[in-house]
Amino acid sequence: MGEWIGRDRKARRAYGFDEIALVPGRVTINPEEVDISWKIDGEKIPIPFMASAMDGVVDLKFAIAMGKLGGIAVLNLEGIYTRYDDYEPILKEISKSTPEKATELVQKIYTKPIKEKLIAKRIKQIKSAGVPAAVSTIPQHAERFGAIAQEAGCDIFVIQSTVTTVRHISTAYKVVDIRDFCKKMKIPVIIGNSVTYEVAMDLIETGVHGLLIGIGPGSACTTRGVLGIGVPQVTSICDSAAAREVYYKKTGRYVPVIADGGMSTGGDVCKAIACGADSVMVGSAFARTEEAPGKGFHWGMATPHANLPRGTRIRVGTTGSLEEILYGPARLDDGTQNLVGALRTSMGNVGARTIREMQMIDIVIAPAIKTEGKLFQAAQRVGMMK
């Protein structure tokens, strides 16, 4: 498998969202009658949307709003919400910074130590609103922060890094034993990020309850440019979902795959699920909501890295409320609003009653899917060609 890219060197072809299309089914279904719910560790979640653990996307208010609308918002325990008691001035400072100074400013802001007392406080503040609390941390802090989060009543704990593997080697710090960590935790553990079949299988076998798939596709991420690594999302999701299926057939335990990054429209979300994802984690689309704390700006989780920032602050603007982005009514024609409606309509048109059925529909390689017949849209920069 693969093509020759040079003497004695082969490379496998990989695909992104813009290179495929979903094939309509022989049976169509009323969009209001499809089931878009998914489960993690047996708990049913109404809609398959998670908000990324990025400071410009999720704060306490956003987490509560997202929970009340049926989704999950993940709070970043490495961010400003656990470093500063009053974080509003910090957000304002970031939003007012010039593009030239933004990365330097963010690096400086994130040097302040994390206050462990704020971890429990933030979780309790979210829980007090009657919605699930989900938080994220890097592997090095997982054991300490996991214990604090669980004690505070956290519902979902996420371990997240640029590239996550079971076999991590380091002499500088203690490496988290993922298998042992999952046994200790009494709440679901989601881990990421990965992009290959082999790593997905390794992670699933540790006992995790969900996988985050995607390295570098996010709109505010520059990992692919800085480090040169990553695999386009379509191939990443398909390969990881294949590992999930093999493990499920072998053990009977189903571990959901969560596509993380690279989805800016409803069509991208539909394609991610058709490729095998059970849910999607989205950043930029939610950063554009009125509830987002970034005030029209969005920055990557790796932006504050002290020596090698792998993210940038981007201006995304504010286009509507969180409810409009999720449920509509859409006021824009580019697919960035009413994501739930787009998923329901797509599932209805391909004849998929559930997320599981959506994962089994026909897909075609279609590099012209976005440009075919769109001459006027391209010329006028409207619709799909903005």
Characterization of this structure:
Belongs to the IMPDH/GMPR family. Residues 14-360 form the IMP dehydrogenase/GMP reductase domain. This protein is an alpha/beta fold. The chain has a single domain (15-385), classed as TIM Barrel. It has 15 helices and 16 strands. The chain has helices at residues 60-68, 88-96, 99-109, 116-127, 142-152, 178-184, 197-204, 223-226, 233-251, 266-274, 284-287, 322-327, 339-350, 355-358, 375-380; strands spanning 3-6, 9-11, 20-22, 38-40, 43-45, 49-51, 72-76, 134-137, 156-160, 189-194, 210-213, 257-260, 279-282, 297-299, 313-315, 363-365. The protein has an 8-stranded parallel beta barrel, surrounded by 5 helices. Strands 1-2 form a two-stranded antiparallel ribbon. Helix 10 links the parallel strand 12 (257-260) and strand 13. Helix 1 packs parallel to helix 4. The chain starts with a strand and ends in a 6-residue tail after the last helix. The model has no long low-confidence stretch (mean pLDDT 93).
Task: Provide a short characterization of the protein structure.
The protein has 386 residues and is of the alpha/beta class. The protein is 34% helix and 16% strand.
